């Protein structure tokens, strides 16, 4: 069966490949930005590309549990790598905005306060930060059962990421709405078992 082949292949594949493959677009996109390959507004384009990659990886991380639950595809061993690489691109997205776009430190806080889409994006980043810091074996041992509860912060963080994208673009464009719809669908799949339990 196809599912058995995928699971067998996943068992043989090291998580290190996920880190390597996911990291490759970062320097390539930066190179394109330096050489004119990202259009007439390379900084804005670089911000967008890093942010889009982050959102795609966050969505990929959300898909792992439904894939196992509903399709039998077990990719759990890659979830930490995908999550950390998502945070890597969120951090790059933020760094490009801070260092290359805004540049003026006093303007950063003003933008966070005055522009709602930046406020929402920063809130998502703030939720992801403790998850990235505690995504290691030492933190899992130290936090015990609290670790799993803490990492449920990824759900509001991904939702805020989707909302940030919708608010960022001018008008109602289909791409960010599709991302947000996928996120809401995946989050609703997470909520389904809880409703069954409470109903029982």
UniProtKB/TrEMBL annotation:
Name of encoding gene: msrQ
Cofactor: FMN; heme b
Annotated InterPro entries: Fe3_Rdtase_TM_dom (IPR013130), MsrQ-like (IPR022837)
Membrane topology: Multi-pass membrane protein
Highest taxon above the source species: Bacteria
Location relative to the cell: Cell membrane; Membrane
Protein name, entry field: Protein-methionine-sulfoxide reductase heme-binding subunit MsrQ
Function: Part of the MsrPQ system that repairs oxidized periplasmic proteins containing methionine sulfoxide residues (Met-O), using respiratory chain electrons. Thus protects these proteins from oxidative-stress damage caused by reactive species of oxygen and chlorine generated by the host defense mechanisms. MsrPQ is essential for the maintenance of envelope integrity under bleach stress, rescuing a wide series of structurally unrelated periplasmic proteins from methionine oxidation.
Coiled coil: none
Subunit structure: Heterodimer of a catalytic subunit (MsrP) and a heme-binding subunit (MsrQ).
Residue ranges annotated for the Ferric oxidoreductase domain, each copy included: 51-161
